[in-house]
Amino acid sequence: MFRINNTFVGILHTLPLFLGLAAMGVSAYIRVHGDCQNVLKYPLLFSGLFVSVVSALGLVGALCRVNAALYLYLIATFFVILAFASFTLVALVVVTKGNAPHHASRVGFTVRDFSPWLRHYVSDDHNWDDTKRCFAQARICHGLAVDAHNVSLVFKHSTTTQFGCCKPPEQCRFKLNGTLWEAPKAGAAAEESDCRSWSNREEKMCFDCDSCKGGVLAGVRKQWRDMSIVNACVVLLLTIIYVFACYAIRNNRLEYSKYTAQRNMKMRILNSNHR
Length: 275
Fold this sequence. Notes:
- It is a multi-pass membrane protein.
- One of its GO terms (biological process) is auxin-activated signaling pathway.
- The structure is a single chain.
- The chain is mostly helical.
- It folds into 2 domains: about 5-100 and about 225-275; about 105-220, no CATH class.
- About 70% of the residues lie in helices and about 0% in strands.
- It contains 10 helices and 2 strands; from the N terminus they run H-H-H-H-H-H-H-H-E-E-H-H.
- It has helices spanning about 5-35, 40-65, 65-95, 105, 115-125, 125-140, 150-155, 160-165, 195, 210-275, and strands at about 175, 180.
- A hairpin with a 2-residue loop joins strand 1 (about 175) and strand 2.
- The chain is elongated and about 110 Å long.
- The two termini are about 40 Å apart.
């Protein structure tokens, strides 16, 4: 019958262990050097911690042939897989809901383009004030070097946050005069709230605009989408290793049965010699 070596199973457990440690490292990096949308900081930290602890438990059980550790690993891994799968499904629903038009990436996003769950991220005034303060400190619009000749090229390669927060919305029809945006002298577009919120000051720009919040949410949605893909891969990896761990338990049982049989045989031989 096909048997899987426990050493091989133990080596497999190092994959999610290092993956969990890497997730915690990325979380720490985001905390220190990340942008102003640190929405993945805590999900990466806690998921990496859980995966690392559970994988270490499976590693000890497989290499040291400790069935108790393997049983605990199987129970913990089952709930980890269930949690990751549920999180992935919820995240996919959240990022796919919305009514963003196909041309939104070219003309900019608005808050109404996203799911209600994502809207809550920017609808909370305290949260948004912290985000704006972070934008001003990070000077996210600094260094774009925009002028009348390269505006299309610059914002074509900018992030969605820069596109929504560092320039007036398209419908405002502002014109560049040197490096300053000027509002049209007349026209209904200039009456929109986003157009009135615009300022050429770097610490303000369009940070109070709906288009800025939409650009932020577009970035957040992309982060959650990427996280969902990674989670799906982790679920697949953990499921495969879970199956192999079951074989490791079986190997431990066979080894123990073999050891017990040999010990009983030796005892019978010793008893017969004494007679």
